[in-house]
């Protein structure tokens, strides 16, 4: 009989512990509220969790503590995402290139493609600069003769000047792209060496 009574008391204790407790908080009006569910909107004063006996299970979290906890959780999540992305990039790097030479060759090819575009833009700009100089010279000749610059010449000059500005912008973007590709190549090579060390050569 004592055994059954002990088991019954143990079951009741476990059941009581498993039941949810109460939540206590102070609302915006300064009134103390109790509920078996936490408030939908977390109050500024925080929410304390109580047992059915009124004992504090978990003290109210201050706004500062909540912000710190949320910031730590966000930082932890960001770090986990960074590690996942890094692992995915490492996998692609190793699967795409059998050797460091393969990787270097591919990156040099990409840089060469961008450099070819830069060279083509530079040639276009040089030709455009010569054409714009011709327009400026012709316009100056009319002004020396106290004549109005013909509208067609003035239009061509303004169009050429705008094209030159556009080409300068494209050149700057392509040059930045080449620099970024070069930096990426060096970073990829360094990472590749870490992931796949080269065998040491015996003397």
TrEMBL record:
It holds the Pfam family DUF4124. It comes from the Bacteria. Transmembrane segments: none annotated. Keywords: Coiled coil, Signal. Residues 9-65 form the DUF4124 domain. Residues 68-145 form a coiled coil. Residues 1-18 form the signal peptide. InterPro entries: DUF4124. This is DUF4124 domain-containing protein. It comes from Gulbenkiania indica.
């Amino acid at each position: 009989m004592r055994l059954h009574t002990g088991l019954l008391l143990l079951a009741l204790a476990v059941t009581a512990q498993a039941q949810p407790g109460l939540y206590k908080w102070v609302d915006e009006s300064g009134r103390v509220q109790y509920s078996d569910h936490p408030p939908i909107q977390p109050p500024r004063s925080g929410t304390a969790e109580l047992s059915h006996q009124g004992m504090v299970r978990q003290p109210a979290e201050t706004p500062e503590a909540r912000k710190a906890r949320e910031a730590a959780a966000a930082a932890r999540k960001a770090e986990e995402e960074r590690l996942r992305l890094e692992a995915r990039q490492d996998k692609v790097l190793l699967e795409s290139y059998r050797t460091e030479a393969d990787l270097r060759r591919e990156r040099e090819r990409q840089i060469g493609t961008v450099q070819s575009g830069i060279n083509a833009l530079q040639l276009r700009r040089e030709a455009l600069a010569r054409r714009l100089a011709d327009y400026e010279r012709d316009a100056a000749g009319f002004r020396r003769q106290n004549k109005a610059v013909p509208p067609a010449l003035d239009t061509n000059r303004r169009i050429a000047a705008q094209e030159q500005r556009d080409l300068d912008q494209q050149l700057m973007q392509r040059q930045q792209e080449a620099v970024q590709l070069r930096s990426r190549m060096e970073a990829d090579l360094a990472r590749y060496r870490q992931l796949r060390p080269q065998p040491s050569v015996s003397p």
